[in-house]
Amino acid sequence: LAATAATLSHLAPGRFILGLGASSHAMIEGWHGLKLEKPLARVRETALLVRSMLAGEKSNFTGETLRSQGYTLALPPAGHVPIYLAGLRAKMLELAGEVGEGVVINLFPAEALPRMLQHVDAGARRAGSSLAQREVVCRHQVVITSDKPAARDAFRKHFAPYYATPVYNRFLAWAGYEEAAATIEAGWREKDRAKTASALSDDLIDRIAIIGSVAECQERVRALARDGVTTHIIQSMLPDPYSVRAVLETFSPRSFSPV
C-alpha cells in the first residue's frame, strides 16, 4: 500500500489521496479467502504503519494484526499523501476522525448523517482537532429518471446483497432500521431473495439513493452538502451509457452549483 501510494503520488502530484477501509465479510472472506478479524485494529494499524512508511521511516512495528520490520520505501512520495478512512458505525467513524485526514461514507439513510458526523467530530477532538478540519467524502448512487419505481427496483437488486452482509446489516440497524435489517438478514439466510429485497421499502431507498429528475437530484446533493458532506463522488447507479451520460451532464460544472 505504501509503495503504491508513493508511486501514484508521482503520477498525480498533489492530487492523490489514499483511502483505507475494513471492507466486508463478502469481499474479505468470500473473494479474498481471508478472515475479517479485528477490523478496527486492522484499519488503525494499517493507517499508522503506512503513514510512517510514507514519511520515510524504516518500519519497526508490532501490533495486534500487523507487523513489519526493516522496510523503507525505495521511492519516497512526491509530497504529503493524505490518508482517509472509510467508516459506517460509531467506532470506525471515530477512528476516521482521530487518525484520518478525511472520512469516506456510503449508502446511509440521509437522517443518519448528523449522527455519523458527530462520531467523526468526537474522534477528531481526541486528536486535538475537529470535524471542520476533516474532509467528508460521500459516494452518491444517482439515477436521473422519471421512472422512479424501476430505479428503486434496480437499487433493490444491486444493494440488497450489500445490506445482507454483517457489516452493512448492522449499520442499517444502527441507522434506525432494525426491522428492515432483520428482514434482510432472515431473507438472505433463507435464500429468499424476494423477502430480502422487499425489506428495502420505497421510502428507505429514497433516503439512501438519489433518484428523480435533474432538479430533484441536484437538490438532494445540495442538501447533503448543507448537512456536512464536503466532497461528492457522483456515481451513476445504472451502468448503461444513457444513464451515465444523464448523470454526468446533470452534475457537470456548467449544469450544477453545489450552493
Taking all residues together, what is the mean pLDDT? Answer: 96
User: What is the number of helical segments per DSSP (H or I, 4+ residues)?
Assistant: 12
Characterize the overall form.
globular
Distance between the termini: 36 Å
Uncertain stretches: none
Radius of gyration: 20 Å
The string of secondary-structure elements, in order, is HEHHEEEHEHEHHHHHEHEH
The biggest sheet, with number of strands, parallel, antiparallel or mixed sense and barrel status, is: 6 strands, parallel
Going by helix content, strand content and strand pairing, the class is: alpha/beta
What is the β-strand count? Answer: 8
Helix coverage percent: 40-55%
- Beta-strand portion reads 5-15%
SSE blueprint:
Layout: H1 2-11, E1 18-20, H2 25-31, H3 39-54, E2 60-62, E3 67-69, E4 83-86, H4 90-99, E5 102-106, H5 113-126, E6 135-144, H6 148-164, H7 166-174, H8 178-189, H9 193-198, H10 202-208, E7 210-212, H11 214-226, E8 231-236, H12 241-250
Parallel strand pairs: 1-4, 4-5, 5-6, 6-7, 6-8
Antiparallel strand pairs: 2-3
Describe this structure in words.
The protein is an alpha/beta fold and 259 residues long. The protein is built from twelve helices and eight strands. The strands form two sheets. Strands 1, 4, 5, 6, 7 and 8 form a six-stranded parallel β-sheet that branches. Strands 2-3 form a two-stranded antiparallel ribbon. It is globular, with a radius of gyration of 20 Å. The mean pLDDT is 96.
Gist?
The protein is α/β, with parallel strands linked by helices.
